């Protein structure tokens, strides 16, 4: 297993030599298959084979070899199915990787959503699954914008914001503030686009709070500015809703500008 991983890692750096790169991946594949023969119940062997086939498919995509790309994506899908459904059915990491394969690689959004939903059934507190779900909703937005009613697109934005906020909350609980801030920033922007100013306010304020308490909170000032700008828009939208409801103070009572 370590030898197969090492060959694959070596192959990743051989960008300028495609022939040698393929040779190293073939070698890595052989070692991982050998490891699986020696211990077929060790899910690490099969999981690493699935990752290898996905990497190989993406290399073939970058070289415009679409036939080979399809072959290796299918092989990755078959291998993930074996390891996720049979060898490690309660491993959220593998189900999320399989989900991402269909979402970013194969391009089957509906299948990806089913796999990630199952991953959340296994472990609803696994941050990478929520992050992948958020990305899937953004992908769907890019695919359907202009072709479906605005309210349907806003619903997708709101769902993306919900999952990104979940990532932020989970990382914050682990004191990973620097990693949490960008996800809160995404949640802030997605929720605003989703016509959900209440959750936009909550996420925006998390970004601002983190930026005040840690220098690792944001990678750039643009993230803080985006959050602050969206926060002001969200507060204004909340105020408008309250006025329409006949209560001019409700937004300020709950979301005072502070």
Low-confidence stretches: none
Give me the oligomer status: single chain
Q: Output the number of helix runs.
A: 12
Distance separating the two termini: 55 Å
Q: Largest beta sheet, briefly?
A: none
Radius of gyration: 22 Å
Mean pLDDT over all positions: 88
Q: How would you sum up the global shape?
A: elongated
Structural class of the secondary elements?
mainly alpha
Please explain how this structure is put together:
The protein is mainly α and 258 residues long. Helix content is 81%, strand content 0%. The protein is built from twelve helices and no strands. The chain has helices at 2-12, 18-38, 43-62, 66-87, 92-106, 109-122, 127-144, 150-173, 177-193, 197-213, 221-244, 250-254. Helix 1 (2-12) packs antiparallel against helix 2, helix 4 (66-87) runs antiparallel to helix 5 (92-106) and helix 5 (92-106) runs antiparallel to helix 6 (109-122). 41% of the residues are buried. The model has no long low-confidence stretch (mean pLDDT 88).
